[in-house]
Automatic annotation (TrEMBL):
Pfam families named among the record's database cross-references: Prok-JAB
Protein's name in the database: M67 family metallopeptidase
Top-level taxon: Bacteria
Region feature (Disordered): 30-56
Keywords for the protein's UniProt record, in alphabetical order: Hydrolase, Metal-binding, Metalloprotease, Protease, Zinc
This protein's record includes keyword DNA damage: no
Location of the JAB1/MPN/MOV34 metalloenzyme domain: 4-156
Length: 171
């Protein structure tokens, strides 16, 4: 499975700004786009409703807010293309011993991924509010295994493509 997430730079900037603003709590949100397009067009910041601890080392969408976003997206013929959240303090892989935040799905993240097949899960890891962000994106393959997307940040979608299959045939 060769997964590619093509995303506009302005949307990446909005996610990173949100992650910096909410640090040390994990920020979360969704990127919505036209149905069946796989192209995020707008970022919807969400409230982190997880109150597991004061550090906010996890995230959960508020169910009422999630329903409002879903309803509005449906009215606009949009769908969730990317679920976003940040990692701010703990490593997410058992083999990681650096103690630094890492842009890799936690066990809970993988459970969420299983509820939304085909949706990219983007993670921004920050070690501090002014630190350099690490953006990575993941999908689950057909066997339920985590697969890292290739992330292509573009200025606009007009000239971007993910392969020969989406270039217009001029014959």
């Amino acid at each position: 499975m060769d997964a590619v997430l093509v995303i506009r730079a302005d949307l990446v900037e909005q996610m990173v700004e949100h992650a910096r603003r909410d640090f040390p709590r994990e920020a979360c949100g969704q990127l919505l786009g036209p149905e069946e397009s796989d192209r995020p067009e707008r970022y919807v910041p969400m409230t982190n409703a997880d109150d597991a601890d004061a550090q906010g080392s996890d995230y959960r969408f508020d169910s009422r807010e999630q329903f409002t976003v879903y309803k509005e997206a449906s009215e606009r013929d949009e769908e969730t293309v990317v679920v976003f959240h940040s990692h701010t303090r703990v490593p997410r892989r058992a083999l990681t011993d650096t103690g630094l935040p890492e842009a890799y799905p936690s066990v809970k993240d993988i459970e969420y991924m299983g509820l939304q097949p085909g949706v990219h899960f983007a993670i921004v890891a920050l070690t501090g509010p002014d630190a350099e962000p690490d953006l990575r994106s993941f999908l689950l393959d057909d066997a339920g295994e985590v697969v890292e997307d290739e992330v292509q940040v573009v200025e606009n979608y007009m000239f971007s493509h993910t392969g020969a299959g989406d270039v217009p045939d001029r014959s």
